[in-house]
Design a protein that fits this description.
The structure holds 2 protein chains of 2 kinds. Chain A is of the alpha/beta class. Helices cover about 40% and strands about 20% of the residues of chain A. A 4-stranded mixed beta sheet of chain A has the order 1-2-3-4. Chain B folds into 2 domains: about 30 residues; about 130 residues, CBS-domain, CATH 3.10.580. Chain B contains 5 helices and 7 strands; from the N terminus they run αβαββαββαββα. In chain B, the strands form 2 sheets. Chain B has a 4-stranded mixed beta sheet. The two termini of chain B are about 35 Å apart. The relative contact order of chain B is 0.16. The chains are: A alpha/beta, B alpha/beta. Chains A and B meet through helix 1, helix 3, helix 4, helix 6 and helix 7 of A and helix 2, helix 3, strand 4, helix 4 and helix 5 of B.
Amino acid sequence: MPETIVDILRRAKVGDIALDTAPTVHPDATLEQVCRLLEGRERSAVVVCDGEQVCGIFTQRDLLYRAAEGALDPKGAIGELMTRSPRTFQAGRPLSEALDVMVEGGFRQLPLVDGEGRARGLLTTWDVLAFIARRFPEETLNLPPRLHQVLSTPEGA
Amino acid sequence: MRCPYCGHDNIQGIELCEQCGADLAGLDIPEAGDGLGGRLLTDRVADLDLSPAPLLGPDGTVADALDLMANQRHGCVLVVEDGVLCGIFTERDVLSRVVLAGCDATATPLSAVMTPTPVRLEADDPPAFAIHSMVSRGLRHLPVVAGAELLGFVSVRNLLRYIRRDVIG
């Protein structure tokens, strides 16, 4: 009997699928440095660490909110702009639990930590969707192309 | 694939049956498997809890878009001209085309920083199409249209909520 999505989400540990170690920055990093990091790595957030402990997170959504409040100082410290003490998640816990937390709590990103609270990467909702798509290519990735999708420009959204 | 007319077992993806010449194009669309649940291929994206799209015209300013996105807590604005979708402006564009580019938000029109003719979904497309489009192209927001009518957009979050509630149960 084929493994179901529920089996896989329960068995997989979040640490197994957050392949790309999240960019980690010190609170003194500037907004500009963080933006360059996010742009180059195609990531939606950086984890802010003082030493090995997670002390904050700064996401593209945070940037949107700050930008909506007015002009931003590119030299400003990220420690002043970040969301402090974010909700974290144990890297050894099952993916199904992370999905519950993300959907119910409305978190797009969860900084991962080990048993001692040390930073162990970042899990995003996009990572979970991509994981599901990779594990079930028959249902998702092998679909025939559609004309309206082929003709469109592939960037930006 | 097996020809539904003569039963000949052809190689996968062939357009005409090697034995009887029947047109097989389009018949090798994957069938709903038991893995992720057939609903991903049989439901319609229009029936997901679509987010109502924040809308602006191409002459709206970047500052208008930032206000709208922040107040409605959405990661994108859809740009509409004469009722027709013509662009999308997302939080990723805020990063690369506004903050890093140092653009003047109150003086810059959306038409200068939006992505024109964005990837979109049709109302009848199955959720699997939405997942496919997002994952293969690295997108997080996809507008959904029914012909010329704009229905809203689907986000990574809409899809995960749907998968958790309807597919996983």
